[in-house]
Amino acid sequence: MQTVDYKLFGLKTGDRVLDLGCGEGRHVISTYMTADVEAVGVDLCFDDLKTTRERFEPFAEPNNGNKTFVISVANALELPFADSSFDKVICSEVLEHIPDYLGALKEIERILKPGGIFCASVPRFWPEKLCWLFSDDYHANEGGHLRIFKARQLRQQIESQGFDHYHRHWAHALHAPFWWLKCLMWEKQEQSLLIKAYHRLLVWDLLDRPWLTRKMEALLNPLLGKSVVMYFRKGLAS
Fold first, then answer.
1. Range of the domain at 64
2. Total structural domains in the chain?
3. What is the pLDDT of residues 63-90, one digit of tens each?
4. HSE of 205 in the Cβ direction (CA atoms, 13 Å)?
5. CB atoms within 10 A of CB 27
6. What are phi and psi of 23, to 5 degrees?
C-alpha cells in the first residue's frame, strides 16, 4: 500500500533516499523499484526489518550497479548518518508513534541536503478521531498512536524547521471505513463476516488495482482519505 506519490516526490537517478520508520518495507522497496537510487530503510523493530528483507528478495537487481538497497535498525532521534547526506526522506505513518516527534523532524532536517525533498504522511484528523472514539484499543497500546495531528499545525511545525511546503494530497479513502468497522467491533472483529469481506475487497484492490476501485478512491480521497500526505523542500540556506 503505497502512500507517497513518486511523481510528486521526484525521484532521480543517483538519489540517496531514506525511508525513516520503514516498517515492513513498503516504501523503501518501492523506492528501489522506481528508479536507480540508493534506497535506505531504518526502523526500531528488528522483526519488521527481517520481513522487509524477505519481501525485497524477489525485486533485487544484483546485476544493476546503479542501485542499492540497505536496511538497518536505527533511532529516529539519533540517526547514524552525516549532515546533508540524503537527497530525499520519506517518513510515512511514523510521526504519530514518536513521543518526541519534533526531535525526529530536526534529525530529518539535519541529514537532508539543502534543496532536498521530504515527504511526511500521518493519519488525517477526522477519520483518525473516529477510530479513537470507537476503540481505545486501536491506539492505546505499546507502539500505538500517541496523538492525532492537525495537518495545518504539523505543516507549520515542519516549515519552522526550514522547509518549504509545495504539495498536499490525501490517500487511502477505501481504508477509512474498514478501520472504523474494526474499531466498532474490536472485540469481535476476527469473527465479523463484514470485516472479512471488506478485507478481501482491499486485498483485491491492492493486488489487481482495478479501474473501478482506483477511480472511486481518487474521487473519495479529498473527503475520506485516511492519510494526509505533505511534500516539502529544504531551503537552500538551511
1. 6-124+142-172+225-234
2. 1
3. 999 999 999 999 999 999 999 999 999 9
4. 19
5. 28
6. 60, -130
